[in-house]
Amino acid sequence: MAAAAVASSFQLSMAAVIALVMVAATFSAAPVAAGPVPAIYVLGDSLADVGNNNHLVTLLRADFAHNGIDYPGHKATGRFSNGKNSVDFLADSLGLASPPPYLAVAKNSNANYANGVNFASGGAGVSNATNKDQCLSFDKQLDYLSSVSASLAQSLGQSQAATHLAKSLFAITIGSNDIIHYAKSSSSSSDPSPQPFVDSLAQTLSAQLQRLYDMGARKLVFLGVGPVGCCPSLRELSSTKDCSAVANDAAVRYNAAAASLLGAMAAKHADMSYALFDSSAALLRFIDSPAANGFAEAKAACCGLGDMNAKIGCTPLSLYCANRTGYVFWDFYHPTEATARKLTAMAFDGSAPLISPMNIRQLSAL
Ligand SMILES: *[C@@H]1O[C@H](CO)[C@@H](O)[C@H](O)[C@H]1NC(C)=O
Ligand SMILES: *[C@@H]1O[C@H](CO)[C@@H](O)[C@H](O)[C@H]1NC(C)=O
């Protein structure tokens, strides 16, 4: 969820090494869970992608080694991680199967969406323009959700479908890629405040979240963006190897804007609830005090090439660390499974100010 973010300049550095192999995965439907949350619907970027980009013609993908080296079966599923990502841990916490990638499910003529589905796509941003044509934009993901909602109404009936969606969790992680692009195109010293940029993102996000509500989402889990300025890729660009202050500042402002948007929505719609995770503050704890949080390395990437393993992403030709649980970052943009596990635990059972106005366990029980 949290953490750094995504592949963006990925395409340049990796073009030579990546073979574009389209992998079609098959999924069997899990039984509908008996708990208060029947399903999870996921929207977002590479922090939550479980393989949608495998089905796109794009270089923003992770369906090759050494990704997945710690995933069951050592399988490179398309997750931008050595193992599981945050939505996998969220599903585990609820006793549900991690929802499958929408583009894999939608291939079946009698696709079943009642157990949840994951629309997240590596590279996606709040803005359509972010990694345009390289991913499913957030708007496109909402378009697909609209078809899913129509399909559920057809299979379950209008009122049952509405009840089902209202009980389900909608997990959202979006914004990191917009901020990375912004930071990379800024020259930190001379740039004005990122507030106008953040305001414009927030305005787009506001309409997108309203659309989500209008389609029947009533329990929103919003995973704010991490301190993206501390991802190895942005650190590596600094002569002192410090975090990008511009990116981290934008991340804090964006999370604050999301908090205010969600607060206003919940005030307006009495039937909507949410849990907002301050991924930035949470992950900064790991980065500022690695040892206290069980990590040995919070700056360099585990898998990659070049300075801090951050010049080139994680490819079959990259080097990777032996002890993945000791690293905060898996590759130049993404957290390790160990980081995702710890952050999700904080979001699930933690308290304000990191997760507010309630934690995910409380939201789920409503
Ligand atoms: C984003 O793209 C969609 C089409 O995919 C378009 O309808 C929409 O107006 C675009 N939004 C913005 C803010 O450009
Ligand atoms: C991996 O690193 C972590 C954090 O430093 C440490 O606690 C753990 O013992 C290490 N595991 C191995 C197998 O060395």
UniProtKB/TrEMBL annotation:
Record protein name field: GDSL esterase/lipase
Family named by the database record: Belongs to the 'GDSL' lipolytic enzyme family.
Domain of life: Eukaryota
Keywords: Hydrolase, Lipid degradation, Lipid metabolism, Signal
Lipid metabolism is among the record's keywords: yes
Signal peptide: 1-34
Keyword Transferase: no
GO molecular function, one term: hydrolase activity, acting on ester bonds
